[in-house]
Amino acid sequence: MISKCLMIACGLTLTFTIATADDKNEKGKWIQLFNGKNLDGWTAKIKGYELGDNFGDTFRVEDGLLTVSYDKYEKFDGTFGHLFYKDEFENYRLRIEYRFIGEQVGKGEGWAMRNSWAIRNSGVMIHGEKPEQMGKDQSFPVSIEVQLLGGNGSDDRTTSNLCTPGTHVVMDGKLVKKHCISSTSKTYHGEQWVTAEVEVRGNKPIKHIMEGKTVLEYSEPQLDDGDAHAKELIEMSGKMLKGGTISLQSESHPVQFRKVELMKLDD
Predict the structure, then answer these.
(1) Which of 55, 84, 102, 195 is the most buried (most CB within 10 A)?
(2) CATH number of 30-264: 1.10.10.10, 2.60.120.560, 3.30.70.980, 3.30.1390.10?
C-alpha cells in the first residue's frame, strides 16, 4: 500500500515538473530568446572564421544589451557576421527592440559615403539555413532578411525592409526576384529605440509590422535555384521554405538589441 502511494506521488511530481518546463514554450506567450545576461543559446558565424569563433568579440552583452561592436576591428573589409539562435521556428511572431549607436567602422561597406546603404544598417534573418551549412567564407546565410535601417538625420529611409540572400518571395501573386524591397515605414533617426515585429506563417503570408501597422507583406518564401549554394539546399530539403533559423546581423555599423522575443503561433 505504501509503495503504491509512493508511485502515485512520484507520478504526480513528474507530471508537474514536465508541465512547468513546457509552460515557457506554450503558444501565445512571449519567449525571451535573449536573456539580458549573456549569449547562452546563441552562436556566432563570421565570414572568414569557423562557426563559433566570435572574432573581435563582435557580439557581446554590455549593460544588459546585446551589442554588435567593432571596437576591436582595425577595419571591416566585408567581415559580415551573424549570431544564430539555437532553435528553428515555423509559425511565430518575433519582436525586436533595437537602436543604432556610434559611427560605422572604418572600411565598412561604402563607409566614405554619407548615404551608403550600410550606414545604420543591420538585420534579422528568418527562415535561414543552419549555420553548419554555411561555408567559411560565406557572407550571408541563405534566408529572408528583415532589414533594419536607421535614418541619417535628414533623408527619408524606411526600416523593416526585405532582402533575399539566396531566396525569392511572392508579392501580389507574382514571383519577385529583386534583392531588396522597401517597406512603407516611417524613418527613425538618431539613437532612439525602435520596435520591429514580424509575423511568420511558415510558407504562407509573412508580415513586417511597425507601430501596429503592416508595412510590408509577402508569401511563399523559397530558395533561388539560380544561386549555387541555395541549389544545394534545394536538393537536400526542397525549394519552398516553411521555417528555419533566426539570426542577428553584424554589417559594419554598431547596433544594440534590448529585446529579442518570440511568440509561437498555431499552425
Answers:
(1) 84
(2) 2.60.120.560
The C-alpha cell at 13 is 511530481
Query: CA angle at residue 104 from 207 to 229, to 5 degrees?
Result: 55
Question: Could you tell me if 188 and 150 are in contact, meaning their C-beta atoms sit under 8 angstroms apart?
Answer: yes
Give Cα 232 distance to the centre of its chain: 22
pLDDT digits (tens, 9 = 90+) for 158-188: 999 999 999 999 999 999 999 999 999 999 9
3-state secondary structure of 233: helix
Residue 57 to residue 38: CA distance in whole angstroms: 13
- What contacts 226, CB < 8 A, 6 or more positions away? none
Are the CB atoms for 150 and 189 separated by under 8 Å? Answer: yes
CA distances from 117 to 121, 184, 185, 225 (A): 7, 17, 17, 26
Q: Give the phi and the psi of residue 11 in degrees, each rounded to 5.
A: -65, -40
Which segments of the chain are extended strands (E)? 30-32, 42-46, 59-62, 65-68, 81-85, 91-100, 121-128, 144-149, 161-163, 167-171, 174-176, 180-181, 194-201, 206-210, 213-223, 245-250, 255-264
The pLDDT score that the predictor gives to residue 12 is 37
